[in-house]
Design brief:
It comes from Caballeronia sordidicola. The chain is α/β, with parallel strands linked by helices. The protein contains seven helices and nine strands.
Length: about 200
């Protein structure tokens, strides 16, 4: 299975650092040149064009929510791919989302993909601190998807990156806890929780 991160802003960089810490190869793509930043983060990051990044088995979207449709149009097919939604639709009116959770609305731009919400609930600075908390526990990353197999595969990735995966169930159920609705954050947004094994 291969991975790509599209968007290397604060959240995308924090996720890329997690891959680099574990030496897991990941493509990184953005609208701006990334060679220097990718080299600084670690040798397991491979700068790519967005057109190449969308070919990965697992694509992590770490772009502003408003740009997701542009990314969706790049791939010839999203069929069977796992798309990890690390975006937040804060300040997007619910009517623009057709009343759906943001991940369900975003899914329309990625027909055939298996959407998983993850890596979006922590501020970038907290996520960049890595998987271990000061108390020695593993930092929790919440996961939500309507596809159980995709959710399980993302939980495995989260675990490989050193974090503690906590599955919340379906996007329209437990997943609402990590989704913004208009100018309101879900109840688990910003919650820096740890799991002690």
């Amino acid at each position: 299975m291969n991975y790509a991160i599209i968007g290397l802003g604060k959240i995308g960089t924090a996720i890329a650092q997690a891959f680099a810490r574990e030496g897991i190869e990941v493509g990184v793509a953005s609208r701006r040149p990334l060679d220097a930043l990718a080299a600084k983060i670690g040798p397991s990051l491979v700068p790519q064009r967005i057109e190449d990044a969308v070919k990965a088995d697992v694509v992590i979207l770490a772009v502003p929510f408003a740009t997701h449709r542009d990314i969706g149009r790049v791939a010839e097919s999203w069929q069977g791919k796992v798309v990890i939604d690390a975006t937040n639709a804060f300040d997007v009116p619910p009517e623009e989302l057709d009343g759906l959770p943001s991940t369900a609305a975003l899914a329309k731009a990625f027909p055939g993909a298996k959407l998983v919400k993850a890596f979006n609930h922590l501020p970038a600075g907290t996520l960049a601190q890595g998987p271990r908390t000061l108390q020695g526990g593993r930092r929790v990353v919440f996961i939500s998807s309507d596809d159980d197999a995709a959710s399980a595969s993302v939980a495995t990735l989260v675990d490989r990156l050193g974090f503690a995966p906590v599955e919340l169930g379906k996007i329209g159920e437990g997943g609402l806890l990590v989704q913004a609705r208009g100018c309101t954050w879900g109840h688990l947004i910003f919650q820096d929780l740890a799991k002690f094994d």
